Amino acid sequence: MIRLKLSILFLGLFLFMRCEKEPNPQVSDYQYFPIAVGQYQIYEVTDINYTISSDPIYSKYFLKEQISESYENQASEKIYKIERFKRQTNAQSWKIDSVWTTQILTNKVVRTENNVDIIKLFFPIQTAQFWNKNELNSFEVQKISYQDKGKDFKIDGKVYLNTVSVMIKNDSSLLSKNKNFEVYAPLFGMIYQENTNLAYCQTTPACVGKGLIEYGREQKVKLVEMGLEK
């Protein structure tokens, strides 16, 4: 179940998280990426790793992202510092994993992950809107797009209204499956992420097209808690 420790800043979240389907309210594009000093989000991450020589390996951990401070760069743009923590169970203490940053600019959200600038969202949010997520770094062009704007998305019995999906990769064939996407909800930010990268058996003609996994990884990330700490 999603547990929300809400301050006044997050009281509006109830307007977007209902178990009954209601008409979607009008929301600003910027509400899909809420950000404030002290804000935190906790995600449950499940991983399945496949190899041809052994059974699948299952693992689970929790990831906490917290906005610890904000400052301005030389262009007077506000930058938010994100401290990322990990733990295997709820009984354990959080351990620092990494520090990232993010910016919300006029027409995009830029997140610096492991010293690489990535355009996470592009405004305005419109279905079939394409942009190059690597425009600000030296990696090859990777065009991503919005899908399913305004649709409901259900996680553990909770329904988020008016969500939008960011399709990062969706390539499937008899030989492989590569599907990576994120789902955002107003006032919650990213609520779900799925990364699937699998290679199917092709060592013999008999196994081709059977969906037998030779190696790869499946990862699912879902929001389990959000709040504000001072």
Structure description:
0% of the residues lie in helices and 60% in strands. The chain is mainly β and 230 residues long. It has a single domain, classed as YmcC-like fold. Strands 1, 2, 3, 4, 5, 6, 7, 8, 9, 10, 11, 12 and 13 form a 13-stranded mixed β-sheet that branches. A hairpin with a 2-residue loop joins strand 2 and strand 3. The radius of gyration is 19 Å and the shape is globular. The two termini are 24 Å apart.
Mean pLDDT: 89
- What is the H/E order? EEEEEEEEEEEEE
CATH architecture: Beta Barrel
State the end-to-end CA separation: 24 Å
What's the domain count?
1
Overall morphology: globular
The residue ranges in which pLDDT falls below 50 over 5 or more consecutive positions are 1-23
Treating each run of at least 4 consecutive H or I residues as one helix, how many helices? 0
Sheet-strand content, in percent, reads over 45%
The chain-level structural class is mainly beta
* CATH fold topology: YmcC-like fold
Q: Summarize the amount of helix as a percent range.
A: under 10%
Number of strands: 13
CATH class: Mainly Beta
Query: What is the makeup of the main sheet?
Result: 13 strands, mixed
* Radius of gyration from CA coordinates: 19 Å
